[in-house]
Design a protein that fits this description.
This protein is α/β, with parallel strands linked by helices. It has helices at 2-19, 25-36, 38-51, 59-71, 133-154, 173-179, 232-246, 285-306, 325-338, 345-355, 387-393, 413-419, 422-444, 446-460; strands spanning 75-78, 87-93, 97-102, 107-108, 127-128, 158-164, 188-195, 201-202, 207-216, 255-262, 273-282, 309-318, 375-376, 396-402.
């Protein structure tokens, strides 16, 4: 307990200048309102946590958020861009048009109870919110409602739009929305993400393309008449061999990973069908496109050499993020006013217990109460998101809030567990307050948005024309993957 007190005191000393900052009357009102409604949004978020619906299957999760927005006088358009669980909710009219992105899909294979040790759900549910999208979507909706109330009470001109975006985890939901022009009249967009710290970072990430290669051969008895067969699995292995040789001759920042998703049923039967699933990543989307083209040639060569045929399906693909320093500075200033997450004694024990299940050396639960210093980095983060495409169309800004104890890795059972507790809700509330306060700043000062647009144009170049990685393919609504 003494160590706990010392660390808490240190972080309070760090935060004391922040707490002393002046917060406007309107922002104070939003903070109070979100605190008063936290129990309602906790119920909402944990309901979606319990649903744990994977990409393009988030019918109940999406409907719950839609119902809340509809009850708050937002106009709703549902099933946008050919996505049954996608929606756009709008309030107000005219310029500026400010967008908030909401996600709500879970990840397959990470079933977990809200306890600080590994325990799969007793109801047999196999998926889980290992990336905190139940908090993500609920937090955005709660922030948007308070901004709407502020607009109504102060007769603020402009349009607030919530894009309900399904299947971020590999399904590229936002890319389909971008391709259909749903961001063409938007002036800027914002979002937040669950994480293990409270931070705003000006940095890019990795563009990604995901593709399935399917080979078709001729089945036969592997011992009795092998000469009559043409193995589709051989084609997969030949392709994989070529791709592994290629690793020496691609840019060093590239990431190439694959799994064989179908390789046959029995060793004594030559496989007539086989499939391999690839992800290609790089900080530059143009390099990803080149890797994709080279992989297609490798697949064609593998089919030719093994006497099989090949088809491929792009399951998703998204650009790297174009960060926006102008907007990030506004978000960070508001995050400092809001501050971080203060744990109760019970939450502190939970966090410590959870942190003992991974390498958390040098980290302490009290760090969730701090706000990480503002940073600008030229090093891309090693993750991918379909929000990247949005950032090439309109200025986009994001932040992270401490919904998980310090050091907790994303896409882990630990993230699922923490996200199902009051710690996750507290982080969500930090983000909601910050997002709402930022929206107020931008509606009141649209000149900031114009400066952010100039930064975007400078980063992407004057000759840019948006052409999504997915081409003209329809959404794979029966698909759910993960990044």
């Amino acid at each position: 307990m003494k160590k706990h007190f010392i660390h808490s005191l240190c972080f309070l000393l760090i935060l004391s200048p922040i707490l002393a900052q002046k917060i406007s009357k309107d922002k104070k009102a939003i903070i109070v309102a979100l605190d008063q409604k936290e129990a309602f949004y906790q119920k909402t978020a944990l309901t979606i946590w319990n649903y744990a619906e994977i990409g393009y299957q988030e019918y109940k999760s999406s409907q719950l958020l839609q119902d809340i927005l509809k009850n708050e006088s937002f106009a709703l358009e549902v099933g946008v861009a050919g996505l049954p669980t996608g929606f756009v909710a709008s309030y107000g009219s005219g310029k500026p048009v400010i967008s908030m992105l909401a996600e709500f899909d879970a990840l397959p294979g990470v079933s977990q109870e809200a306890v600080p040790f590994r325990k799969e759900r007793s109801d047999g549910h196999l998926s889980g919110h290992a990336c905190g999208h139940h908090l993500f979507g609920t937090g955005i909706v709660s922030a948007a409602i308070e901004v709407k109330n502020w607009m109504l009470n102060n007769k603020i001109k402009g349009t607030l739009r919530i894009h309900g975006t399904p299947a971020e985890e590999g399904g590229s939901g936002k890319v389909y929305m971008a391709r259909e022009g749903l961001f063409d009249d938007v002036d800027m967009s914002m979002y937040w993400h669950a994480g293990n710290q409270n931070s705003v970072r000006v940095a890019s990430n990795l563009a990604i393309a995901s593709v399935k290669y399917r080979f078709k051969g001729i089945s036969t008895h592997a011992a009795g008449a092998p000469e009559r067969g043409r193995s589709a699995l051989d084609a997969v292995e030949v392709m994989n061999y070529m791709m592994n040789m290629m690793r020496e001759h691609i840019p060093s920042a590239s990431r190439v990973h694959y799994v064989i998703t179908k390789g046959g049923e029995a060793p004594n039967v030559v496989p007539a069908h086989a499939e391999v699933y690839y992800f290609f990543r790089h900080p530059d989307m143009r390099v990803v496109k080149d890797l994709l083209e080279r992989s297609i040639k490798a697949a064609e060569g593998a089919a030719m050499g093994t006497g099989t045929s090949m088809t491929y399906e792009m399951t998703g693909g998204s650009f790297n993020i174009l960060p926006n320093k102008i907007l990030s500075e506004v978000v960070h200033a508001n995050l400092e006013m809001v501050g971080g997450v203060d744990y109760t004694e019970e939450e502190h024990i939970f966090a410590e217990t959870l942190m003992n299940t991974f390498n958390s050396e040098g980290l302490f639960p009290e760090m969730a109460a701090s706000v990480t210093p503002f940073s600008v980095s030229e090093i891309a983060g090693n993750y991918s998101t379909d929000a990247g495409d949005v950032s090439w169309i309109v200025p986009l800004v994001s932040m992270s809030a401490a919904t998980w104890p310090p050091g907790t890795p994303g896409h882990s059972w630990q993230a699922v567990a923490a996200g199902g507790t009051s710690m996750g809700i507290k982080g969500m509330t930090v983000a909601a307050k910050t997002m709402a306060m930022t929206a107020i700043d931008l509606f009141e000062n649209p000149a900031i948005i114009e400066k952010a647009k100039l930064e975007l144009y400078k980063r992407r170049g004057t000759q840019f024309k948006y052409e999504p990685m997915i081409g003209d393919r329809a959404p794979a609504l029966d698909y759910a993957g993960k990044h």
